[in-house]
Design brief:
Layout lengths: L1 H41 L3 E6 L4 E4 L1 H7 L19 H17 L3 E9 L5 E12 L5 E10 L1 H29 L3 E4 L2 E7 L4 H18 L3 E8 L5 H16 L3 E5 L3 H10 L7 E2 L3 H9 L6
Parallel strand pairs: 7-8, 8-9, 9-10
Antiparallel strand pairs: 1-2, 1-5, 3-4, 4-5, 6-7
């Protein structure tokens, strides 16, 4: 009888130890769960996770606030229809979810709008990855996103600044490659440098006419020495600028005339009219300033 009592006491003690160990493990699990919850809620990003039916299993406090839900504890069991998203955004989110679940592959860095519970629409960068169990079976997905509205504003400002800088540089290059230089009383020289296309021809004409009016020029020398290729289009554009200057009463002289340009003018039948031509800029300047020296 005593042996049986001892065995019972030993069994009870064993069960008590097991129960105590179970209570300890449960306490540790609850503590770890609470720490995990605090970690997730401390993140600057919003976090959520769904099952394969697109039903929320959980989410961070930040996500709950954005979604218009009272707290993170009530996220479980909700769907996107229970959140404050507009219908178009709800459908977009679900389509991305389905893509992740059907492909089994993550979808990263999605830039999209999110209308939050406070009525404000912000831009967020979202990443969604498949959620799997210990055996690798797909059981849902995890999503994490961050408000990047401020960053996008900064990037837009930087892009605007870059565009303004590029335009300023282009204008400066255009001005440097299309200078207008007064070399004598009422005599201007425009040495053209680089390739000339249709857009550049318009700039040449605008600067030429503005210079003629601004300097009250009587003679303008257009020097083509620095233009590597002078085809029919270039010749036509330059002659159009010369004709426009002549309409203002200004004499136009072309210098830097090379054999290939002369052939182009002849072959295309371009009419030089009264435009004087010289092979070198020096000869053109000498001709333009003849009779003006000393005066």
């Amino acid at each position: 009888m005593e042996n049986e009592t001892e065995r019972l006491r030993a069994r009870v003690a064993e069960l008590e130890r097991a129960a105590e160990d179970l209570r300890r493990r449960e306490s540790e699990a609850l503590r770890e769960k609470e720490i995990l919850r605090r970690v997730i809620d401390a993140l600057p990003q919003a976090v959520f996770w769904k099952d394969c039916n697109l039903v929320y299993i959980g989410g961070s406090q930040r996500f709950a606030e954005h979604a218009g839900l009272p707290s993170a504890e009530v996220v479980r069991g909700k769907t996107d229809d229970d959140c404050c998203w507009p219908p178009a955004q709800t459908e977009k989110y679900r389509n991305d979810d389905r893509e992740v679940l059907e492909s089994g592959k993550a979808k990263l860095h999605i830039i999209e709008p999110e209308t939050q519970a406070n009525g404000q629409t912000v831009w967020v960068e979202t990443s969604k990855v498949p959620l799997r169990d210990d055996e690798g079976r797909l059981i849902g997905l995890v999503g994490i996103y961050e408000d990047i509205t401020g960053r996008m504003g900064e990037e837009a400002a930087l892009a605007s600044e870059r565009e303004a800088l590029i335009m300023a540089q282009a204008a400066l290059l255009s001005e440097l490659s299309t200078p207008l230089l007064p070399i004598h009383e009422k005599v201007l020289v425009m040495p053209l440098i680089g390739r000339i296309d249709e857009g550049r021809s318009r700039i040449v004409m605008e600067r030429l006419l503005d210079g003629v009016v601004g300097h009250q020029a009587e003679t303008v020398i257009l020097d083509l020495t620095g233009v590597p290729v002078v085809d029919a289009a270039v010749a036509t554009g330059v002659l159009s600028a010369a004709r426009a200057a002549e309409l203002l009463g200004t004499r136009v002289i072309l210098t830097g005339i090379r054999p290939e340009l002369a052939r182009t003018i002849i072959e295309t039948g371009l009419d030089l009219g009264g435009v004087q031509t010289f092979g070198t800029l020096r000869d053109g300047v000498a001709y333009a300033t003849r009779g003006r020296r000393g005066g």
